User: Fold this.
Amino acid sequence: MKKILVINGSARKASVSTALCESFLGDKAGFETKTYNAYSLNVKPCCGCGMCGKTVGCCYDDLDEFMADFEQADYLVISTPVYNGSVSAPLKAVTDRFQRYYAMRFDHGIKPAVAKHKKAALIIAAGSKGEGREEIKAMYERMFTVLNTSLESVIFFDSTDKREPDEAAVESVKQEGEYFFNG
Ligand SMILES: Cc1cc2nc3c(=O)[nH]c(=O)nc-3n(C[C@H](O)[C@H](O)[C@H](O)COP(=O)(O)O)c2cc1C
Assistant:
């Protein structure tokens, strides 16, 4: 069974990015889906100690289960609000903790650092028009170069300060999800 790992970067109940992520996922019968919320993970931010450059792994063990799920996943779905032009702070902390794979690739010479290839999707909600999309996309594209992961879908819904996704927007996200997983 193909495995989907979802990491959600919003803490809000009425989160637009979370709602669109659910539409993107649709009914995932026939897939094994595991969803994490970055806020619930209470993740320690990377402290730059350099331990992952000396030995494979991380000085913290709080993301061991998450990273094991990541390594096994076939699909990675990241959903996030735009906060000051980037992802929310807990999601940024999770993102930085992928540094162990950068160290595996460049300090330990393991290529690919992540054995199983993943297809990735990004789902972003922004309060203002056009903000954050390119910055967040560029951040993950750069990171994915060492994660054996290809970014194949970006859903961006902006101006949430003034509007909510209407039926047509939700339908188009659903279709994009169907294509992403089954196309
Ligand atoms: C701390 C904070 C920072 C924000 N920074 C931005 C920003 O830089 N650009 C923007 O367009 N919207 C910004 N917003 C608005 C959110 O992106 C917007 O409300 C979005 O819908 C939140 O996503 P969610 O509905 O999935 O929680 C910010 C909101 C908060 C709370």
